[in-house]
Amino acid sequence: MAGSVHFSGVRTPLLIKKSCFSRFPSLSKSSNLIEFAASAVSSSGLFAAFGDGCRRRVLRVGCKKGVEAVLREEASENESSDDNAEKLACVMKFGGSSLASAERMREVADLVLQLRDERPVIVLSAMGKTTNKLLLAGEKAVSCGVSNASEIDELSLVKELHLRTVQELGLDSSVISGHLEELEQLLKGIAMMKELTLRTTDYLVSFGECMSTRIFAAYLNKIGAKARQYDAFDIGFITTDDFTNADILEATYPAVAKRLYNDWINDPAIPIVTGFLGKGWKSGAVTTLGRGGSDLTATAIGRALGLQEIQVWKDVDGVLTCDPSIYPRALPVPYLTFDEAAELAYFGAQVLHPQAMRPARESDIPVRVKNSYNPEAPGTLINKTRDMSKAVLTSIVLKRNVTMLDIVSTRMLGQFGFLAKVFSIFEDLGISVDVVATSEVSISLTLDPSKLWSRELIQQELDHVVEELEKIAVVNLLQHRSIISLIGNIQRSSLILEKVLYFPLQKYSKTILNHIHHYL
User: What are the residue boundaries of the ACT domain, all occurrences included (predicted)?
Assistant: First the structure.
């Protein structure tokens, strides 16, 4: 049984604030109806419209049939596919640090070629810190003139990185030149409109993955390894319309399976798929799956194709017992359960996306986390079960920049429905609650930092929350706090927790970390 214990209230430094974005108007026009790239209209009932100002991106999706009908028809067609063909066997996902330069791309290509016999599907993030640079470029575009948009430093850095990489890999610049031109025009449009929405944010950051996959596929083809590039939003990744934090819908799996399998059977080539991206099922606009969403892309493909293993390649030797920047002696965890990995990701570990374990667990496909800088290291194997006698606690996780609310009211004593009133306030305001602790007369809760990033919960909104809660209780708002979580087998760790909890956290935090680490 996996579980976690949380210590809330430790003060941490303020993290960088993210901004909201608005929609570039030329992308909202639509003129031509074409067949949905993931599956034919006749089988899935999906169709798409492209905007005049967007040559490659799907902007609108209409549904002629229900999701259940899509699933039935796609499943039927998949069953009739060529069973004798050698099928794709694993997925390999590489993050931005693994693709940060031409040299790193060559090393990743070597890894892919070593596992070529396993017939992998490759999922890629954007190169290096490209996503952050694109976000900052969008922020700057809002406040600069149209004539200055081309001179935004972050745009120049993105162009320089990708053009240099293309040149060093011996590729033609036409591989990405169209995307770079379109990116610059988008920033000019943002500068002209002086506002941005989350919808445009997703479209803006999608350029990173679209360029990295095109470069990598072109390089593999150049060295003789036949590869085919795919944009996830064109092969059936259908999501909710929660821009910057969308979730994958069930219809994604049969659509992706059909497209990738059919292409593989008809003309085998290594699939190179953009991570992090999808398409809103109502809007048809490009969506993103939240920070680290490429992990979710990889596990979703693993489930869709029924692969043997999902490999997530990072820049560390697997999932570690602690953040090495806090505790340098952190060690790799050899085995985790899906539940433990999900807890780790949700409560602050940066190795995996919080939702990435769901598709793998549903289809019982093992996930292996490995180091692209040190491929010989065994990494961490995540599976349905593990030997619980090997480690009582598996990891310690710190989640920073947490907003905490202490809600105190004597009305809680013997009164029905008080908690319902409290949580209805958060529901009405669309704010996600993270960790909750209650006593006879008080509630302490934290707000989910990932939701704050995606919704840009500004001070006025926090004040509104407090104002509503103060109608029924006394409220104390505490910002820039942290949650320390102990992940492991709670049933066997009560004795350890009893010892640890007697330490005063704020005074002896480093001592606690060393003490707990002894049991990992």
Answer: 407-485
Instruction: List phi, psi (to 5°) of 392.
Output: -75, -55
Task: Select from 148, 166, 208 the least CA-distant residue to 183.
Answer: 208
Closest CA to 509 of 250, 478, 517: 517
- Determine the Cα–Cα distance for residues 127 and 153; give it in Å rounded to an integer: 17
Q: Do the domain assignments include residue 289? A: no
Query: Is 4 strand, coil or helix?
Result: strand
Neighbours of 378 (CB within 10 A): 12
Spatial separation of the C-alpha atoms in residues 266 and 284, rounded to whole Å: 28
Enter the tokens of residue 297: 């892309």
> What does residue 481 show for φ and ψ, rounded to 5 degrees?
-105, 180
Q: What are phi and psi of 76, to 5 degrees?
A: -65, -40
């290594």: which residue's tokens? Answer: 270
| 205, amino acid identity | V
The total of other beta-carbon atoms located within 10 Å of residue 454's CB is 22
**pLDDT tens digit sequence for 434-488:** 888 887 778 889 876 555 444 444 566 777 888 888 888 889 888 888 888 888 7
CATH of the domain at 444: 3.30.2130.10
Supply the range of the domain harboring residue 450. Answer: 2-15+395-488
Contact 470, 490 (CB under 8 A): no
Q: 3-state class of 8 per DSSP? A: strand
Residue 61 pLDDT class (50, 70, 90 cuts): very low
Residue at 229 is within a domain: no
The answer to the question of residue 432 being in a domain is yes
DSSP E strands, 115-170: 120-124
Give dist(CA 177, CA 265) in Å, integer.
31
Q: How far apart are CA 51 and CA 70, in angstroms?
A: 25
Tokens of residue 446, six digits: 């934290």
In a domain, 475, yes or no: yes
What's the pTM value of the predicted model, to 2 decimals?
Answer: 0.76
Task: Burial-class residue 376 by CB neighbours within 10 Å (0-12, 13-18, 19+).
Answer: exposed
| Tally of structural domains, the chain | 1
By the 8 A CB rule, do 246 and 61 touch? no
Cα dist. 348→43, 224, 235, 311, 312 in Å?
A: 41, 41, 31, 21, 18
CA distance linking residue 127 with residue 158, whole number of Å: 9
